[in-house]
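Ticket #4471: complex job returned nothing on first submit. Input attached below:
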Amino acid sequence: MTCPREQEVIHAVRSGQWAEGLRAHFAECEACSETAMVAGFMLQAAETAETAAPEAGFVWWKSQLRARREAAVRAEKPIIVAERAVAVAALLVGVWAAAWFSSESPALAVAAVGGLILAGLTAGSALLYAWSRK
Amino acid sequence: MTEVEFREFYGATAKPLKAYLSRITGNATLADDLLQESYYRMLRVDLPSMDPSQLKSYLYRTATNLARDHFRATKFQPAPLNEATAGEAASSDIGLSADIQQVLNEIKPNERQLVWLAYVEGASHREIAEMTGVKEASVRPLLFRAKQKLASILRERGLAVERSAR
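Support reply: We reran it on our side without changes. The output follows.
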């Protein structure tokens, strides 16, 4: 059950101003009476609701700070991807070099693998140190 | 949006939005978090120039979506009126506020959103559709059902509020 004058009733409940014609209609209309009851309850819910909000300056400052932090994370992403790509490429080159050296001379292969492990450890430590400082 | 524009807009919208979020979630602390997140998301996107009412619709839509996500993630259980809520109210209002929240908790969160936007914000069906993401044609029947449900709860509890033309 709806009434075409429902919006007028809601407006009257919100403003507290009832036009004479609407007052007469309201007395007879069950749908409008129900609407007024619910609207009145909801307005009371709004009047007694918690409305304390943080200061505008605080919300602005926090938003700016968060936007900067997110921009920094976005900017770092390609660097991290590049670092990982270089690490993988270095490993592949090392494995290929070790295979090539071993075909030339076993002593060279041992030296190459040793050098590869040393270089890997150094690069790994440098990367870990760099990431821990971010 | 400049800081001055933001402060002006925030001053006009923060308290009603906080009331809306407090009542639909039943939790003032959660409402604070959702409020700040809503403003942050509004500031983050590069919005085309909007008048204040469009911006307000955008803000409410964001807040409504965030609240909905929260309800989905937590399989919404209405929280009891917490101390933070009660602490701000005058002592005589605490019981009334809690009673009101209990009644609101008896209807679904989306029904709470609809009746709030229609009766407290005075939003039209088109505006409600924009703010909630519900189709405009669906707003009328959904609002009607929510109103009937709430009216029946109010009658059962003897809490019908008289704001009539008398």
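Chain A has two domains: 6-47, 71-132. Closing as resolved unless it happens again.
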